[in-house]
Amino acid sequence: MTITRSFTYVKPGSLPEALALLAEHGRGAAVLAGGTDLVSWMRDDLVAPEVVVDLKGVPGLGGIALVNGTLRLGALATFSDLLRSPVVAAAFPVLAEMAGTVASVGIRNRATVVGNLCSAVPSNDAGPVLLAAGASVQVSGPQGERTIALANWFLGPRRTALGRGELVTGVSIPLPGPHGGCYLKLGRYRGEDLAQASVAVLVLPERRYRIAFGAVAPAPFRAAAIEEYLAGRSLDDTALAGASDLVPGQISPITDLRASAEYRTHLCRVMLVRALRAAAGRLAGDGPAYGTRLL
Amino acid sequence: MGHRVTLRVNGERWDLDLDPAETLLEVLRGRVGAKSPKVGCERGDCGSCTVLLNGQTVRSCLVLAVEADGAEITTLEGVGAAGLAPVQRALLQHNSFQCGFCAPGVVLSAVELLAEHPHPSRHQVQEALAGNLCRCTGYEPIIQAVLAAGEEP
To answer: What residues of chain B, 75 to 134, have a C-beta less than 8 Å from chain A?
Structure first.
C-alpha cells in the first residue's frame, strides 16, 4: 500500500519560514518531525495534508538542555535522544525509563517526544510522566510565543490545545529536586506494543506524591484524588490499599482490541501500588534500578 | 514529481527525481533495486523494512524518501558487501533463521547495537531486536548468535 494522495513537501530553513507556511496553509498543513505517526496516518488516509512541513531543517529545535533546574526538550528530540542523554540519566531518569518502553529502537530513533504529545493518542507514553512533572509546552505562532501547561494540553483523543498556525518548539520540565520516579506500561507482550494502561509516579520528600495515568481515559491525566489521599501518608499497606481502591473512580477505560475495561482497571490498581513502591524505594536509595521490569 | 533528491545507498550515489509521497522503502526497492528491505506490515511494527539511516536503524516504510535527501543509507546489501560481518557469521553458525524474511532487519538492528555496545548484555540484545518480528524461530537462536558476536574480542 502506498500513500495515494499527493501533497507538497517543504523543508523550511528557519522558524519564521515554518510559521509562514503554517499560516498560509492552515489546516491543510501537517508538521513532520519523526514521521512515525504522520506517515502511517497518511497511508491510512486518516490525514490528507496538502503541504507537509518538515521541521528537520529548522535550527534550534533539537537537543536536550538543563537550564536553571528546568529540563528543556526541543521539538526534534527523539526518544532515543532521551535514552542516550547523560543529563536525563542524572537529573530525571524516569524520562529515560519511559522512553525505553516506546515501540522499538527503529521507531525511537525517529519518533519525537513533542510529536508524541501532538499526536495525542490516549495511549501516548510521554504524557503521563510529563504531566506528573508539571511540564509545559512552548508554542510559537502568528501571535508570537506562548506557554501551555501540559495539564491544559490534551483535549481528547488526537485533540490538543494547539491553535491554528501554531507550532510546538519544545517542552519544559521543571525538575522536582529530590524524587523517586517510576513509569509502568502494560502491553500485550514485552517490547513495542502500545500501552493497554500506563502509570507515572513521582514520590517527593515529605510524603508528597504525583500520579498520572495513560491509556485509561480519552487522554493522559493527573489522578488528583489519589494524590490528595496519599499526601502526608507513609506508603504502608493501608495507604496503598486505600490508593488502589480510589483507582476505579479516577480512570475511565474502554474495552477495545487491546484489553477489556475490567482488565485495565484491575491492572491499574496493581501498577499503581508497584509504581509507588518502586518510586519510594528510588527516593530512599534502595529501590530497583530505573528500567527494571516490574510487570 | 519534482523533488531532486540525492541518496547515498551502500556508498553509491543516487540522484533521483521523486514524488514526496514515495517512502524510502518504495524508493530503495523500486528505484535503487535494493530488495533486502522487505514490505511487511507497512506501519512500523514488524521491522522487516529496517535500514540504517546515518548509522541509525529506521523503519523505511515510515520515512519519506525526500526526508532522506543527503543521507547515508545502508541496507543489508551494504553490510555484507565486503564479506560477511561477524554477526552474520554468528547467525549462520547458530542456524538462526528459517525463512529469512526478518533477517535484514535483525542483522541491521544487531549491527547498530554492536556499534554502540560491542559486548551487549542479553537484555540489551533483546531490547535492540524487539520490533523485528520473527515467526519461525522463537528468537532464541537469533539472540544467542548476537550474544556470541558480542563475545568476540
So the answer is: 105, 109, 112-113, 126-128, 130-132
